[in-house]
Design a protein that fits this description.
By secondary structure, this protein is mainly beta. The protein has three domains: about 70 residues, no CATH class; about 80 residues, no CATH class; about 100 residues, Nucleic acid-binding proteins (OB fold (Dihydrolipoamide Acetyltransferase, E2P), Beta Barrel). The protein is built from six helices and 17 strands. The strands form four sheets. Strands 7-8-6-9-10 form a five-stranded mixed β-sheet. Strands 12-13-14-16-15 form a five-stranded mixed barrel. A three-stranded antiparallel β-sheet has the order 2-1-3, covered by helices on one side. Strand 12 and strand 13 form a beta hairpin. The protein is globular and about 70 Å long. The structure holds zinc ion. Zinc ion binds next to loops. The site of zinc ion has 8 residues, from loops.
């Protein structure tokens, strides 16, 4: 989302504080100001018309920023209440040279994702397969990929890539969430925390594959065999679309820990959003494209 002009006007009211103020008073007494009506003396006294959190004008004293975009109001960093007018400003990471980007990969600060595994990898061949107790391989090295993350005009570097799994991302999630990931087809590397989209905010189909998270409401196998599709219904606010679900092979779902009794689990998935009847869904998902997030990490979302 790159629309910085979501907030059409700010509430301006002196002697009102977000932490202690009564929101009804703000709504009743504040003056509505647009970016063009904004005056320097209003600094520190403008608030969001939806969530009432403090706003600032950017740039503060000009009508246009250095990129020629019209000035806009944005939420301050101090408070982060849920707000539909809040823009997640995902800062893309750029590198001054190919060597620096390679170093960032070695230091595990940057991951170039060539793709997510579609099929479950076959365990390594050993004499006695019973001995193999490890988890399935979660990522394998891909080939060098041209990645446009150079500092100078998005110059491309040739960097080692990985074919990975969402399950791998969910392991050590507390560390992965701060790493920069370059997803297939993207123009920049973004921190995982800024790549994850709450499906509750999704109002439309989307042909671009993205990373989503959602909480399971219910789940059931649509047919009699493990090869049938299991429908995983998520908590989703009824709007233009009535529900949101993930459709995955039942066997694969259960291998990921999703069965009939999975209410409350949080699922992370990578895919496109399509219409499904009067709802939305992510379907045709591969083995490596979804996972359940461990409970201890949910608060990091
Ligand atoms: Zn707000």
């Amino acid at each position: 989302m790159e629309d910085n002009n979501l907030i059409k006007f700010a509430y301006y009211l002196d002697d009102w504080e977000f932490e202690t103020g009564n929101k009804k008073v703000l709504k009743k007494e504040a003056e509505e100001v647009t970016t063009t009506e904004y005056l320097a003396e209003m600094k520190g006294h403008i608030f969001c018309p939806e969530c009432s959190a403090p706003l600032f004008k950017s740039p503060e004293n000009k009508e246009f920023d250095t990129n020629g975009r019209k000035a806009f109001f944005a939420h301050g960093r101090k408070y982060s209440p849920d707000c539909n007018l809040r823009v997640k400003k995902a800062e893309g990471k750029r590198y001054g040279s190919e060597e620096l980007a390679k170093k960032a990969i070695e230091d595990e600060e940057l991951v170039i994702v060539k793709g997510f595994m579609k099929a479950k990898p076959v365990p390594p061949k050993i004499d006695n397969p019973q001995e193999y107790q490890g988890d399935p391989v979660e990522d394998v090295n891909g080939r060098l990929a041209d990645v446009p993350i150079g500092r100078h005009n998005g110059e491309s570097f040739s960097l080692p890539s990985k074919i990975t799994t969402v399950r791998g991302l969910c392991r050590n999630f507390n560390k992965n969430i701060y790493k920069y990931f370059h997803l297939p087809g993207r123009k920049n590397a973004i921190q995982l925390k800024d790549l994850l989209i709450d499906i509750k905010t999704v109002q439309n189909a989307d042909v671009v594959p993205r990373l989503y998270f959602a909480k399971v409401k219910s789940s059931f196998n649509c047919g009699p065999t493990p090869q049938n599709i299991r429908q995983i219904m998520f908590e989703y606010p009824r709007g233009e679309y009535v529900d949101f679900c993930l459709k995955a092979i039942d066997l694969s779902s259960r291998e990921h820990g999703i069965d009939d009794n999975s209410k409350g689990k949080v699922v992370i998935m990578y895919g496109t959003v399509t219409e499904s009847g009067i709802g939305l869904c992510i379907e045709g998902i591969g083995w490596g494209e979804f996972a359940v997030l461990a409970e201890k990490y949910i608060e990091l979302l």
